[in-house]
Specification:
Low-confidence stretches: 161-165
Structural class: alpha+beta
Number of domains: 1
Shape: globular
Strand content: 25-35%
Largest sheet: 6 strands, antiparallel
Number of strands: 6
Mean pLDDT: 93
Helix content: 25-40%
Radius of gyration: 15 Å
Length: 165
């Protein structure tokens, strides 16, 4: 499905909003864009540590926003899985607590845990939109930012940055 010029402008405006909103927050690394060539996923990643990122992705053909944490380090993914298990929470409860602390009430959010392209290990939550015009709504933009912050709160402590000596 080809996107209209208006849809492309909406997507760009949303991405600029997210990147600008996070720019003044030292908890997020610099944003970098990682879009699929076919345009099915348009992702902005914020570096979170060695081989770890927080991601806000737009999936325009669904339409959906996907927010989460990813790593290309299998061992880091397994460490996080273990940390969640050790907490006594399910993945949904683990993310829900992060969302709550970020000011977002979302009982039992969907949490997808998968491997993509044989390289990346994802923990993510989808936010399905009725239409791409939802990207213009303040409510959607605020919720997406709260989701991103919730993932940072939930997964941030599990990211160990080794300092060089």
């Amino acid at each position: 499905m080809a996107l209209s010029e208006q849809d492309l402008e909406r997507i760009e405006s949303f991405r600029d909003f997210v990147e600008t909103s996070c720019a003044g927050d030292d908890r997020y690394g610099s944003p970098s864009r990682h879009d699929r060539e076919d345009g099915s996923i348009l992702a902005t990643r914020f570096e979170a540590g060695p081989q770890c990122w927080f991601e806000m992705a737009i999936r325009p053909n669904i339409p959906q926003i996907r927010v989460g944490f990813l790593t290309d380090d299998r061992w880091k993914s397994e460490e996080i899985e273990q940390a969640i298990e050790d907490s006594g929470d399910t993945m949904q409860e683990f993310v829900e607590l992060g969302f709550e602390e970020a000011g977002l009430e979302w009982p039992d959010p969907i949490v997808e845990h998968f491997r993509e392209a044989g390289k990346y290990f994802y923990f993510s939550t989808p936010l399905t939109l009725d239409e791409l015009a939802g990207l213009d709504q303040d409510e959607v933009r605020n919720k997406a930012l709260r989701m991103l912050e919730g993932y940072l709160i939930a997964f941030g402590p599990a990211i160990v940055v080794e300092e060089e000596e």
